[in-house]
């Protein structure tokens, strides 16, 4: 009897011990799971939403002080982000800017200094770097880096690391914009004004991926406000009677009428595109994604619009109307930096390394741009730096213009052409760049300093600033004699030829 009781007690003790051990084990697992969840939250990298527009000059925004254009959504976003007031396009035209943006390298290094070239697959690109870091990647809209004509299908292996794809090489038919849907090689068309249609699809993607374990890189390339300007929706054009529009004092008399007519459609595109961008920003807020997302709004280049006697539609010039672009950036834990201004220029090759810096991703040694993430996190309006801007071989309507190299600081523009002409502008006292100070005695020291900075910038990237013919010959580019550009139109007849900085293996 005693023995039986003893055995019973032992059994109860064993059961009690096992229960306690089980509770402890469950508790430990629960605690471990909670720690893992916390660590996952802490270590998940920020999403990236990059909104790139086409030909939107920095002055054509309400928050930039424009008295005419209506951009309420971007004006509000400027108060919620860091504003780089002197952002510049390294080469103010489509393909060179886009190539520099996604590689972080200068056009003289990659050879991507003309429109309609093919960016070699050997180049390491934005999407490839973020994919390697665990990101989903998606792209919408105008691409202009494929060099296989402007309407051909771009297969997955030529999308430079972007997986989700609803894009096209190049089109400015905004009311019947063609595109290709991922791996479907049949051309489709957006069913409404393309900025609205593209954003709707992008918002669907954001909704579907909002709670993914993996972060995403969503690149939204909207082709407006690039011409044709009169194709903007009528309701937006009606907001801008041409006779009511303000012209800058540097717009030539002979372009006043055409500039006002073009500005009507240009501003209409701006306002419509602002509405589309507002839809993206509102969706990010609705999905509670702003707390862990870097959002950028920018453009690939500006637009002369009659300034300095240069006809509307023109870019590729060294004037601010052409090179200066908007650049707003918000990021997680922005806090008290909302609405702050940075006057130091950010240049196109600086953007990729800065995004990598903000995302705590190692920056490849091949990238030439500077990581400005600390300046973005600690915005200082007094900081200054020099941004190198260039046009290696002007083409199409700019073919008669000389190649140039220039330095843009927060105050000065210093530009040299291949023919030896020099311009120096104090952009604070002369914001419309109407008074060339080159060789003015009272600015001799500053001129010397800027000349040194320009030479240092060129030396850093190994650019000897030779003639356009030198670079065209170096990269073996064949420029069409009648249109003075890479021949992209022959692809429509089945006679196109790929031109690229590296030989293409088909």
TrEMBL record:
Keywords: Hydrolase, Signal. The keyword Hydrolase applies. Residues 1-28 form the signal peptide. Residues 46-360 form the Sulfatase N-terminal domain. It comes from the Bacteria. Transmembrane segments: none annotated. CDD domains: sulfatase_like (cd16034). Belongs to the sulfatase family. This is Sulfatase. It comes from Litoribaculum gwangyangense.
């Amino acid at each position: 009897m005693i023995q039986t009781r003893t055995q019973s007690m032992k059994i109860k003790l064993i059961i009690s011990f096992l229960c306690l051990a089980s509770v402890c084990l469950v508790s430990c697992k629960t605690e471990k799971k909670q720690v893992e969840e916390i660590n996952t939250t802490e270590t998940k990298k920020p999403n990236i939403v990059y909104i790139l527009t086409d030909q939107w000059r920095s002055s054509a925004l309400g928050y930039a002080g424009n008295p005419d254009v209506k951009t309420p959504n971007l004006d509000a976003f400027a108060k919620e982000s860091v504003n780089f007031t002197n952002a510049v396009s390294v080469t103010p035209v489509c393909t060179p800017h886009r190539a520099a943006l996604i590689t972080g390298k200068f056009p003289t290094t990659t050879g991507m200094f003309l429109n309609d070239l093919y960016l070699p697959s050997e180049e390491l690109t934005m999407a490839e770097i973020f994919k390697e870091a665990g990101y989903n990647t998606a792209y919408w809209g105008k691409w202009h880096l494929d060099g296989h004509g402007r309407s051909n299908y771009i297969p997955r292996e030529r999308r430079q690391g972007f997986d989700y794809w609803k894009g096209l090489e190049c089109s400015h038919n905004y009311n019947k914009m063609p595109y290709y849907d991922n791996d479907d090689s049949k051309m489709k068309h957006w069913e409404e004004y393309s900025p609205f249609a593209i954003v709707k699809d992008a918002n669907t993607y954001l909704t579907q991926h909002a709670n993914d374990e993996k972060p995403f890189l969503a690149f939204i390339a909207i082709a407006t406000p690039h011409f044709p300007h009169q194709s903007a929706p009528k309701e937006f054009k009606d907001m801008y009677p041409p006779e009511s529009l303000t012209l800058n004092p540097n717009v030539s008399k002979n372009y006043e009428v055409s500039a006002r007519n073009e500005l009507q459609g240009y501003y209409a595109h701006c306002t419509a595109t602002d509405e589309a961008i507002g839809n993206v920003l509102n969706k990010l807020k609705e999905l509670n994604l702003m707390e862990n997302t870097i959002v950028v709004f920018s453009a690939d280049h500006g637009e002369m619009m009659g300034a300095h006697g240069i006809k509307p539609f023109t870019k590729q010039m060294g004037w601010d109307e052409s090179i200066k672009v908007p650049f707003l950036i918000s990021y997680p834990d922005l806090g008290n930096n909302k609405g702050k201004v940075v006057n130091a220029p950010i240049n196109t090759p600086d953007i990729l390394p800065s995004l990598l810096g903000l995302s705590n991703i190692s920056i490849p040694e091949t990238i030439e741009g500077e990581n400005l993430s600390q300046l973005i996190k600690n915005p200082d309006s007094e900081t200054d730096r020099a941004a190198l801007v260039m046009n290696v071989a002007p083409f199409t309507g700019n073919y008669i213009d000389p190649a140039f190299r220039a330095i843009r600081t927060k105050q000065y523009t210093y530009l040299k052409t291949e023919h030896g002409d020099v311009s120096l502008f104090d952009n604070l006292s002369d914001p419309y760049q109407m008074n060339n100070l080159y060789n003015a005695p009272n600015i001799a020291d500053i001129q010397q300093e800027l000349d040194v900075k320009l030479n240092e910038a060129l030396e850093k990237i190994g650019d000897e600033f030779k003639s356009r013919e030198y670079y065209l010959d170096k990269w073996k580019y064949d420029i069409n004699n009648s249109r003075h550009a890479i021949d992209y139109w022959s692809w429509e007849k089945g006679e196109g030829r790929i031109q690229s900085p590296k030989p293409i293996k088909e």
